[in-house]
Amino acid sequence: MLQPEPRNPFAAGAPRPSRILRPGVLSLPKDVERYRVPGGGAIVVALFEGDRISAVDLEGGQVCEFVAADTKGVIDTGILGETRGAPAQGTRRTLAGDTESAHQLRRGLERRGIDLAGADAVVLFGETSRAGAIAGFTAERDGFLIACVPAAQMAVDAHDTATAVRVEITRKTIASAPHAELPEPLADPMQDIRISKATSSAYVVKAGEFVQVIDVDGRQCTDFQCFDARKLDKGLQKPLDATTTRTLVAQGYPTPGMFSKGFDEDMTPLVELVRDTCGRHDAFALACTARFYDDLGYPGHANCTDNFNYALAPHGVEARMGWMALNFFYNTNIDEHNVLYLDEPWSRPGDYVLMRALTDVVCVSSSCTDDIDAANGWNPTDIHVRTYSGAETFSRAVAFRMTPDAEPELTKETAFHGSFSEHTRNFTEYRGYWLPTHFNNDGAIEEYWACRERAAVMDLSPLRKFEVTGPDAEKLMQYTLTRNIRKLSVGQVVYSAMCYEHGGMVDDGTLFRLGPENFRWVGGDEYGGVWLREQAEKLGLQAWVRSSTDQLHNIALQGPKSRDILKEIIWTPPAQPSIEELEWFRFSIGRIEKFEGAPVIVSRTGYTGELGYEIWCHPKDARTVFDAVWAAGEPHGISPLGLDALDMLRIEAGLIFFNYEFDDQTDPFEAGIGFSVALKTKEDDFIGREALVRRKEHPQKKLVGLEIDSEEAVGQGDCVHIGRAQIGVVTSGTRSPILKKNITLARLDIAHADEGTEVEVGKLDGHQKRLPARVVGFPHYDPKKTRVRV
Asked: For residue range 421-445, what is the model confidence (pLDDT) as tens digits?
């Protein structure tokens, strides 16, 4: 019998569902779990019979080891369908490390009774594997998988870096993964508290102990409140006060780092944030109240305030009509019309905040009840709380995601962090690393003058480095950069833009040529490597693009005395130029002090407008390199230099910065680096060439310098006017110590960008207050680059 065709519900005009694209974990099917194993890292995860496991070599050329164990902890490669393996040397070496992640993984193995002594591994991929190569298995019985990406030490002039592997597990049945959504505990938990949706729980934490609040399924808010237990014992009910906290940290809510504490109304610090993998919370609104739902037509709706009252009653806390709180994962902001608005949380499954109790505290956490708007993604779910002993040690960190669908990576300390932290505690998160903003005894202005007059050393390790190798490496770089790479000799460096097809910039950076088929791209953004890899794959080129950021850390030594300092400590072989011989945008491969010293690359490059060098080394040699530079620099008056002083230096020198002077809407001509686009001297096609030809012929905007006829500070985003009309915007501004005036970089309409044009910078609303200014030569300092060329 013929069966009728299934009816299309949309054919009759039925409503179609909203189309929403969600990159990342939230877009995965419910039976799929995804894990990122970083270079030099490992994970352990439960397997169940019938589960499908796949490993993806994300960047190519990366060895990976799979070790399987049964439910009793006995090593058994047969779980993966393999009869034999090779010694798991890389896994054992990784787990023997002294890193926080290695400690955490060892504890995870101990909890499962797994001993890797004598273990064999299934070895995946290798030096010749392509980016995106896949290996797959099916679990033949229940057990555990340890996936490891071993990391060897990369030489500064080599390319054998260690990169990430992605592991995906497709569960045979969704129920086969109990609590698979919870991340591995950071240590052995003292308390494991599940807060079911639309409920609250109270718990006690002693001074020094840690509290981890986890968003189980993502897009779920949780209100947090706490009391000084000693004050409660005295009948003083003084909870964490959001207004006091915002005032003292001078932020919308506390964050890991310098401004991390939550206070009560007496300004007593109660907790401090140690980690945050989400990055968007609220400390303005109350926890939801009965009145909130009553006024919206939902009388009797469950609410977090009533849930708090119920949970806190056993601790003698009086009920309130509304509770202020730190509303973790609650996504709010205040718009230009002074309206406090909300949207779906940014949090993904497993995102968390980690706090440390600064005194004995009584805490309460909710799983928010709101199901009538986007506060919880329209679907309230669970929250999970873990507490840990105060004897544990956890790094301070926020999460950095390379792309929207990437796994979070916690803020790291650079290899030079220990050296710089001896001079300051003022660090800020920058592109996934902690960098110093200024130093205790000098301050930004003194650091600035040290660079202009003597020498200064700064940490630039967060710069993203990518090893580009293979027979088609030159073709790839020639096609993706605006410079003519075919003219670049081994030992030379070139500054270039990288553009999209429409002419907007992906990034700017420097390209080192280490050999005929060996390049190193150094840029500001992780996506540059992704972009290069995508182009190589699209064109079918035999070229590998592999991240080496964690294998190469670097300091910059800048200032007129920098050559005198380095020539005392850098040994170079006869085939390499000495420091005295090294020319601008060239590099030399050498060692610290002698033939047996720590290997380094020294490039004559910088970001200050002064004679300067960058010194690149493996992280294990960072202390040796810094100590040598510092010791040789002390007789010359060397100073450490932080981000605050660096900003002054680079603005004076007209050096551009991502998301300030350029972004994907800005072409190199509008960003002030038109010299990096080789339209006349480069015959080969490159990405964006056609658009750049058109944009150059019909310019709309131009980056210029402004001198401000006022002592009032001017900064990014300030509007630039002629009369009532806005004709541009300030991209960066500073008080120039050497020019003794306020200066800015600004992007103006081409009709008003001529030198000498009188303009006004708008403050307040742009019209109530104006600062006179005029267009001047660009850059402001040493426009002919005589100091960097000396």
From this structure: 999 999 999 999 999 999 988 899 9
Please name the residue that has the structure tokens 């003022």: 426
Count helices and strands in the chain by DSSP H and E runs: 15, 44
Which residues fall within 8 angstroms of residue 732, CB to CB, at 6 or more apart?
Answer: 647, 651, 657, 660, 661, 715, 716, 744, 745
Cβ atoms of 253 and 326 within 8 Å: the answer is: yes
What's the number of CA atoms in the CB half-sphere (13 Å) around residue 681? 10
Cα–Cα nearest to 366, from 265, 224, 243, 552: 224
Which are the contacts of 239, defined by CB distance < 8 A and separation ≥ 6?
225, 226, 227, 264, 323, 324
Nearest to 200, CA basis, from 35, 362, 7, 398: 362
What single-letter DSSP state applies at residue 15?
P
Q: What are phi and psi of 771, to 5 degrees?
A: -115, 120
- Three-state secondary-structure class, residue 703: strand
The three-state secondary structure class of 233 is helix
Structural contact between residues 245 and 262, judged by C-beta atoms closer than 8 angstroms? yes
Neighbour-count burial for 655-674, b at 16+ CB within 10 Å, e otherwise? bbbbebbbebebbbbbbbbb
| Cα–Cα distance, 333 to 342 (Å, whole number) | 7
Show the DSSP H helices in 229-288 as ranges: 229-233, 242-249
What does the pLDDT read at residue 180? 43
pTM: predicted TM-score of the whole model, two decimal places:
0.91
Residue 538: partners with Cβ closer than 8 Å, 6 or more residues away: none
